[in-house]
Design brief:
Elements lengths: L2 E5 L4 E4 L3 E6 L3 E8 L4 E11 L3 E11 L2 E3 L3 E9 L3 E9 L6 E8 L11 E12 L2 E4 L3 E7 L2 E9 L5 E13 L2 E9 L8 E8 L4 E7 L5 E8 L3
Antiparallel strand pairs: 1-2, 1-10, 3-4, 4-5, 5-6, 6-7, 6-8, 8-9, 9-10, 11-12, 11-13, 11-19, 13-14, 14-15, 15-16, 16-17, 17-18, 18-19
Length: 229
Amino acid sequence: MVSQSWKNEKTDTTITSLKQLKIFTDDFIMYANVNSPDSVSSFGIGTYTAGKDTVMETVIFSAGDSTRDDTARHYTLVIEKTAKGYKQVIPEIGTGENKVKLTEEYETAGTATKTSLDGAWKLIKAYTVKGKDTTANNQIQYKTYYAGYCAWGNSWTDSLNKNHTGIGWGKFEMNGNKVKESMIASTYSLVTGHDFEVDVELNGADEFKQTINNTDGTKNIEIYQRLKK
């Protein structure tokens, strides 16, 4: 995304600093963003149907900062193709006096490369292994791979019962059972601008396990199931 603007009778604001990636797979959409000055993040995932000059999106889960929403929400986007990508407009978003016209402009990114990971995935199990000890990581997390780009977003609750949101997005390359993820933007400074070597073990077409071997000897293991429309 290169710009985002909100407009109504009281507001007319445009920003270009929000780092956001939006991925369209064959059946799903996922967006993930982070505001660089304060690292506040949000993401959403859902299905879509494309028309001649519109896209109808059904967002099934979203999270932003300390909020999360798992109710299905439907949006009709008016699409205008541009020289470098497209512009999308939601004529009214929000409620009551807070309704605004939301306009976002995107530049096309990605390659024609296909991989067995292409699609949208939901985390079903995550844990950290340190020696003989295993610690479960309880969080809601989604991940999308497509056209050489990947994005993930998670929502987790701390000991004070407060929700938190984290995201990351960037490019990826797959070579056999190895995936290299080069993260361009993230909530976390330890992720932004860094490469991660990920071991991937496919269990059929609709499940995979990823393992990241950390420099301190620990392993982060995540198991994902493919989302289906």
